[in-house]
Amino acid sequence: xxxxxxxxxxxxxxxxxxxxxxxxxxxxxxxxxxxxxxxxxxxxxxxxxxxxxxxxxxxxxxxxxxxxxxxxxxxxxxxxxxxxxxxxxxxxxxxxxxxxxxxxxxxxxxxxxxxxxxxxxxxxxxxxxxxxxxxxxxxxxxxxxxxxxxxxxxxxxxxxxxxxxxxxxxxxxxxxxxxxxxxxxxxxxxxxxxxxxxxxxxxxxxxxxxxxxxxxxxxxxxxxxxxxxxxxxxxxxxxxxxxxxxxxxxxxxxxxxxxxxxxxxxxxxxxxxxxxxxxxxxxxxxxxxxxxxxxxxxxxxxxxxxxxxxxxxxxxxxxxxxxxxxxxxxxxxxxxxxxxxxxxxxxxxxxxxxxxxxxxxx
Length: 362
Hints:
Layout: H1 7-20, H2 24-41, H3 46-54, H4 66-82, H5 86-103, H6 116-128, H7 132-148, H8 158-170, H9 174-184, E1 201-209, E2 214-223, E3 230-239, E4 247-252, E5 255-258, E6 260-264, H10 265-301, H11 305-316, E7 330-338, E8 345-350, E9 356-361
Helix pairs in contact: 1-2, 2-4, 4-5, 5-6, 6-7, 7-8, 8-9, 10-11
């Protein structure tokens, strides 16, 4: 719904739908509006917090989870790149770093994960613009973030493994390069070539697969047999929408590549919710205590009024099920080096058993 406490979520969904329709300029404008609103909402109003604590979480303005805010910058940067506005894309990946530094000073990293792909994508943007040092810094941070999320060294995206070796080698970081070689089992890689002397270009294929989870409310209500008052606990639960596609194989010129998953949004959403549940449960208990105090006071004035008041409070107090659900379930990526020219890109979407689900030619 547009406006009010859901305005940021409305803008995020609108921007993503515009992007799906290839309206990149309109999508970028809408993402910019969402970005500025979310920045403003970092300082949540005292009145909203007080109302949420006594009535329902839905009285807070939607501020987005960290992984959503990072992906806002990522998709906005993609919009700018597809519009040929490389400088604006550069600004967006810098803002990814600024956001993490602002929210988590001293660590510059998400405490519950979700920043690995944002760092990885930032490094790709820096590399595309010849900012080798910044690219290496963010390739390193992406690697550290994947490991913090529990991704094993050999499960780190292969392209990232190669990129770490390439840039450590190019920058003369011999010990670091050799450590990566041993960790990843890589013996060779394409060289890093300065942009002004590189005859080839790069295709970066980003595949947004499926749709992110929905949130639903799980509510338990009990009635006190003595005074008739109602007590309730209403908490959100994720409902994953499993994608039919496992990965994509791309063919272009005489080359082909298979996408690899670089961002598991369903997992990010689950991790974010698990981190929030203890606080949400505590808030629910506090709201029950507040409702019962009000119900007891109402009973003193009119016996039976307390039960009605607590029932109304129970109906009003429903879990906050807002989530940016036009995001994909996961994001996959493949990179291909190409000589100058015009190409047709063939995309084969594959199911879990490797069978082709759909073919596209662009």
